[in-house]
Amino acid sequence: MLRARFADARHFWDLDRKAPLESRVPSLDHVTFHAKLGTQGQRVARLRRLAEVIAPSAHAGAALADRAAELAKADLVTGMVAEFPELQGIMGRYYALHDHEDAYVADAIRDHYAPRGPADPVPTAPVSIAVALADKLDQLACFFAIDERPTGAGDPYALRRAALGVIRIIRENGLRLRLLPLLDTAVIAARQAAGEHAASLSDERVMRALNDHPGAAVLRGAGTLARVTRPIPGTDQHVDLLAFEILEFLAERLRVQLRGEGARHDVLTAVFAAGADGDITRLLRRTEAVSALLGQDDGANLLAAYRRAANILRIEERKDGPHTDAPDSSLLAEPDEVSLHRAVIAGLAIGTLVREEKYAEAMAEMAKLRGPLDAFFDTVTVNAAEPKLRRNRLRLLNQVRTTMDRVADFSRIEG
């Protein structure tokens, strides 16, 4: 039996090499990727566009990334892979080398499926990274577009594995990659591929997006709802709501990974909620900085004071809020509220430091709020009898909350 299988393999090896791998690409137009998502040929076109966009961030040549993406699925129509499906990618590499394709292109054909599992190494060569990420981001965008998401009952399209693959490739290679714009590109192409099969947005999801995210917009086409976009925090760029949902799915897989590593996954949640463009490397660095601060007395006490301020604001805002205006410095009657106001003004630098990724300096500045905030609560009556003083003090506490929220949504931190 084994001898017969080896004979079959030899037959297909000799037969497949008679035609260049490149010549097989048109045949992918006749291979179904998914009944609602078109052919493998159409998928290859999407992979080529994505790989070219990703290439600069992966330090890969755009031409090589495009060529690797063009050939990545070509071995699916070879006799060898038809007989031995588990060799997809592997045989593509051998055939590409036989055709004298660039070695980086050949390796990317093999590696773009990786990692296949938690013990599988991730691609490290730039071209392989670009095509592997393109493959997984397209997979996520396509199946989210037709609302085939993982559930508690199962994950038939291995989307959790794809998400973990994206995370591992980025983390283990230290990539700086803004995923939101990439996901937007992938989602727009996926919606086009899905056509009439694209999942429609419920009225509830549309209204939630419009209510929860200032700047969200409904885009219509041919008189019907086409899609909803949300602004990327800190920019004037809008992306598809579905791109945010995929990013949240990725963030949840990252939380699971951090939990398994014994890291502060709740801090990741808080940092992510403060606004993220999908740069996982930056997100993790910021998470580490906030975790380090919370591990110190100043950080722990500052978190307690933040919660106290947030609780007061939540109660009082139900009465006559929101109290979002700047406090009137002429109404600062007590020395400790004057000191807190000065600390908050100085704390405006925190937002700049975070944008410049100077996280240690940002945490040091935020820690300086601890003393003035503690003193404020010790000596100042927030709900003063005089309405003007009360409102002014609530505005001051709102400034404290807003200043800290530039770093992370501390209301989401556990403990």
**How many β strands by DSSP?**
5
- Largest sheet at a glance? 3 strands, antiparallel
Helix content: 55-70%
In angstroms, what separates the terminal alpha carbons? 62 Å
What is the average of the pLDDT values? 91
- Element order: H for helix, E for strand: HEEHHHHHHHHHEEEHHHHHHHHH
Poorly predicted runs of 5 or more residues: none
Descriptive notes:
The protein has 415 residues and is mainly α. It contains 19 helices and five strands. It has helices spanning 2-16, 40-54, 62-71, 79-83, 90-98, 103-111, 126-145, 159-173, 179-194, 203-212, 241-261, 265-273, 280-294, 297-320, 335-346, 349-355, 359-367, 370-379, 387-405, and strands at 32-34, 38-39, 217-221, 224-231, 238-240. α11 (241-261) packs antiparallel against α12 (265-273) and α14 packs across α19 (387-405). The protein is elongated and about 90 Å long.
What's the helix and strand layout?
Layout: H1 2-16, E1 32-34, E2 38-39, H2 40-54, H3 62-71, H4 79-83, H5 90-98, H6 103-111, H7 126-145, H8 159-173, H9 179-194, H10 203-212, E3 217-221, E4 224-231, E5 238-240, H11 241-261, H12 265-273, H13 280-294, H14 297-320, H15 335-346, H16 349-355, H17 359-367, H18 370-379, H19 387-405
Antiparallel strand pairs: 1-2, 3-4, 4-5
Observed structural traits:
single chain, 415 residues, mainly alpha, three-stranded antiparallel β-sheet, 19 helices, 5 strands, elongated
